[in-house]
UniProtKB/TrEMBL annotation:
Sequence intervals crossing the membrane: none
The protein's name: Pirin
Gene3D superfamilies to which the protein is assigned, alphabetical: Jelly Rolls
Domain of life of the organism encoding this protein: Bacteria
Pirin C-terminal domain mapped to chain residues: 207-309
Source species of the chain: Psychroflexus sediminis
InterPro entries referenced in this protein's UniProt entry, alphabetically: Pirin, Pirin_C_dom, Pirin_N_dom, RmlC-like_jellyroll, RmlC_Cupin_sf
All copies of domain Pirin N-terminal, residue ranges: 62-140
Family: Belongs to the pirin family.
Amino acid sequence: MSKPVLKIKELGFHWETKDPFMFCAFHQDQFPKGEANLGPPKEALKGRFLGNDFQKKDGWRMYHGQEVPGFPYHPHAGFETITLVEQGYADHSDSMGAKGRFGEGDAQWMTAGKGVLHSEMFPLLHRDQENPLLLFQIWLNLPRRSKKVEPHYKMLWHENIPIVEEQDENGKTIKVKVIAGKYKSEKALDPTPDSLAAEDNNDIQVWRITLEAGAEFTLPAGDAKSNRVLFFYEGEELKTEGFEIPEGHSLDLDASQELKLVNGTQKAELLLLQGKPINEPVVQQGPFVANSREEMSEIIGEYQRTHFGGWPWPKAEFTHGDRGRFALFADGTLVEKSQQELT
């Protein structure tokens, strides 16, 4: 039998994943106090290449934003995104007429399908303290049969996302947050209707795992046909299978085998991605994913002709003022969550 650990890799800005995932973008920024426009002070923008600021000067980036950090409107087609905001907030707006603010543990699932425009801005809501952001955006591919489905956006509010809390033999705490799939008896909330994860047979698992210092955790064996990658992004050191793995590494794993992890002297944070491969050709060009060059040309042509319905909002980097967490869906349904006070 092969070893459960197949490969260990150092993490970069875009984490390498395996089919059916495309990659995972990891955003960790220590944003300063916000101004009335929900952006940083003007003096903090000096010396930055605004519009394409990825240098992490002073511990944070503006990304493609010029006034507010984030990603002004841009297109997607042929895949879906799972955006988990563990710290801070994201303001979403799209060409379907939907918008929302989510954060502090919420997740957004967006199936781009045949094409959608959206923006994701990071409003600096606090004016008397810093605004840290911790965000993961996972790109999950769609099979050929689903690449042209209608786009759909759904919120997974943190109050409803299942979290399994357990103790190891020494009483150390382990938490598993189930964003997709199932851990033990806890099943994740439903994704978007045409998502790859909507069919249990595809074995899409997205878990965020927290280990107390010194905790021992056994990752259970899964489906032998699935690809499994574990990302160790915060902590000190993990020991497993004779390896001593420092923070900032990923492990490609044999999903059919369990894996015992022994944590070091600091709390550890991990992200698990697992799923059965689609095993279809992948052609990616920026924000578009297709199965062939011909199909990619069709997507680009459609975007040039229609702009996927156009941008209905007044600004490219549109934000949502001083309101709390909420979601306004394309059908007019409004969901309001707890109010965030601006200070």
